[in-house]
Design a protein that fits this description.
The complex is a heterodimer of chains A (about 180) and B (about 400).
Chain A: H1 5-11, E1 20-25, E2 29-34, H2 39-48, E3 53-61, E4 66-74, E5 79-87, E6 92-94, H3 106-114, E7 117-119, H4 147-172, H5 176-182
Parallel strand pairs in A: 2-5, 6-7
Antiparallel strand pairs in A: 1-2, 3-4, 4-5
Chain B: E1 42-46, E2 58-64, E3 67-74, H1 82-86, H2 94-99, H3 106-121, H4 127-155, H5 160-180, E4 189-190, E5 193-194, H6 200-225, H7 228-234, H8 242-247, H9 253-257, H10 264-267, H11 288-312, E6 331-339, E7 342-350, E8 358-362, H12 364-370, H13 372-375, H14 381-389, H15 395-399
Antiparallel strand pairs in B: 1-2, 2-3, 4-5, 6-7, 7-8
Helix pairs in contact in B: 3-4, 4-5, 4-11, 5-6, 6-11
Classes of the chains: A alpha/beta (about 180), B alpha+beta (about 400).
Chain lengths: ~180, ~400
């Protein structure tokens, strides 16, 4: 099922050899790693080599930056290639819309969920969330609040309120022992 | 203070009490284009509460009269962060989240996640489980396609067919309930196999359904397919050619309706599909009618596959020995299935811990939906309803 690596190298010959490296990752097959500058060239070369079908476009937070993954497939030869573009946090993605129109929505989601700037896209808006989301949701630095945490935080807040109110009452009213002594 | 002008009619006055109003009543003319007042395009919202947006889809359409000039999808109303939540759930718990993404065909989404987990952890699935997975996939495919049949008819203005669709879907949901323990949120396909074996009673009920279903399918065709109004609402509406469908990443019946015979069950067989015989229907024009007919053909094919699965079901165990807590070695895996809506894939990354480092769900509906921005301009608003309906989207899987 996996495409011939030498044929791929020939297809990517137009792209400078230093700009893109071709690996075989176990479990995935052929992966082309590249940077943001050569990404569009690599994708164009792949499309012209017959990889016309874009399966998915998504991001991965690697810990050192964001990797944008373009998963393309040749329907006639039934081979898959993944193009992985390394980007810094907050980096700029040059849209592949004019190579693969299928990235119309997924690239918007990619930019929104990983805090990237989308360049050259016909409609570079957010896709799923609104502007008041505090940080890009799929970055590892963005934490998920578990229901237990939320619950614990609420319970703690309520308890603190009750204790504060009790302390206030105690401070306002004279101590009951003192009342007893006076009587 | 001037009296408010009263619009009286003589007809309702008792005889002889009519008094002519002091001022003549002059109707105020509403300015219209006829008066030479210029018209401009309107940007209107369809949805998210529109009756025919299939959930919570909002379309922003710019219209010139009744014609659409430009369209844009506005989604995210059902975003629950399933991909993010997956990063804090154990591998066994992924099925629960996956069920809630595509809520009309949970088995397929669970299956993709389970297959990716099995690849990562190197789990061998017993033969029986593979057949049960194929069987339940096809049962879900029918239960999902009949919803499409019912709702597309609603979009085109019919009502009766929806009741027929729900009648038959209920029978399938009862069987699914009995086999998996739930009507829609199954969590049936687990890493290593499936939860339950099918009991002889359930197998018999399913066989009864599958033998009766061709009769129901004929009823469907009699109700809608043969209806001239319905046909003319669908023919040559929302046409998508091969190149456009491929370029936008469309899959499933949308891609096949445009004439590309691509079916994951054929191209990359999973579960027991390499041992089953079936055909892949394709359309020729790529209009709403082709997409409708492809799904109607698939109903018959899925029904046949159910019978094949019941006949060929091997003996054996339905679950492999799997540790209680899965800690797959660091690595990446990709698994894809043919869901009722198309190519559904899960990209799973493990860092060696008991929770995934990243899960990406490639939902077919998202890619099928974006073709809409290509074909809507030029259509009437009423045709847009049918065109979007013919894509058979599920918003839970688009927004995730």
């Amino acid at each position: 099922l996996q495409p011939d690596v030498t044929a791929l190298r020939k297809a990517l010959a137009s792209v400078a050899a230093s700009a893109a490296t071709i690996d075989e990752v176990p479990g995935l097959g052929v992966v082309v790693r590249t940077g943001p500058d050569a990404a569009l060239e690599v994708l164009t070369a792949l499309r012209d080599a017959g990889y016309t079908y874009l399966l998915s476009c998504f991001g991965i937070d690697t810990g050192e930056g964001v990797e944008a993954v373009y998963h393309v497939r040749s329907l006639s030869r039934d081979g898959d290639v993944r193009v992985r573009v390394s980007l810094p946090y907050g980096g700029t993605v040059r849209s592949a819309f004019h190579v693969y129109p299928g990235v119309l929505y997924p690239e918007r989601e990619l930019a929104e969920m990983f805090g990237l700037v989308l360049e050259g896209h016909p409609n570079p808006k957010r896709l799923l969330t609104t502007e008041d989301v505090p940080q890009p949701l799929l970055l590892k630095s963005s934490e998920v609040r578990h229901d237990a945490d939320v619950h614990r935080r609420e319970v703690t807040a309520v308890r603190e309120r009750i204790e504060a109110a009790a302390a206030e009452r105690a401070a306002a009213a004279p101590a009951p022992e003192a009342d007893g002594e006076e009587a | 203070m001037a009296e408010p002008r009263r619009y009286t009619t003589t007809r309702l006055q008792p005889e002889g009490t009519y008094q002519a109003p002091e001022q003549p009543v002059v109707p105020v003319r509403v300015p219209s284009g006829v008066d030479g007042v210029g018209t401009e395009n309107l940007v209107i919202n369809m949805g998210p509460q529109h009756p025919s947006t299939h959930g919570v889809l909002r379309l922003l359409i710019e219209v010139d009269g009744e014609r659409i000039v430009a369209a844009e999808g506005s989604i995210g109303y059902l975003h629950r962060g399933i991909e993010k939540l997956s990063e804090s759930r154990r591998y066994h718990q992924l099925g629960t989240l996956m069920d809630r993404s595509d809520y009309l065909s949970g088995i397929h989404t669970e299956l993709a996640a389970a297959m990716a987990t099995e690849q990562l952890a190197g789990i061998e699935v017993p033969e029986k489980a593979l057949w049960l997975r194929s069987l339940m996939s096809e049962v879900t495919r029918i239960s999902s396609h009949v919803v499409f049949y019912g709702t597309l008819g609603l979009d085109a203005g019919g009502m009766g067919q929806f009741l027929y669709a729900v009648r038959d879907r209920e029978k399938l949901l009862d069987i699914l309930d009995s086999v998996t323990g739930s009507r829609m949120m199954f969590n049936y396909v687990r890493p290593g196999g499936v939860l339950n074996d099918i009991t002889p009673e359930d197998a018999a009920a399913l066989r009864t359904f599958a033998t009766e279903f061709p009769k129901y399918l004929q009823e469907y065709h009699d109700l809608l397919t043969g209806n001239e109004i319905f046909e003319r609402r669908l023919r040559d509406v929302a046409v998508m050619d091969r190149a456009t469908a491929i370029a936008y990443g469309a899959s499933g019946p949308v891609l096949r309706g445009s004439g590309v015979a691509y079916d994951v069950r054929k191209e990359r067989p999973y579960a027991a599909y390499d041992q089953l015989t079936f055909e892949v229907p394709v359309g020729t024009v790529g209009d709403s009618w082709d997409r409708y007919m492809v799904r109607m053909e698939e109903l018959a094919i899925s029904n046949d596959l159910i019978l094949q699965c019941l006949d060929g079901m091997p003996e054996g165990d339905h679950m492999a020995k799997v540790p209680k807590v899965l800690r797959p070695p660091a690595g990446e895996a990709w698994a894809e299935v043919e869901s009722p809506r198309g190519l559904l894939g899960v990209h799973l990354i493990s860092d060696g811990s008991d929770v995934p480092a990243r899960l990406h769900l490639r939902g077919p509906s998202l890619y099928n939906l974006q073709t809409m921005e290509d074909f809507l301009p030029g259509l009437f608003i009423a045709d847009a309803v049918v065109g979007v309906g013919s894509l058979d989207i599920v918003l839970g899987e688009i927004d995730r």
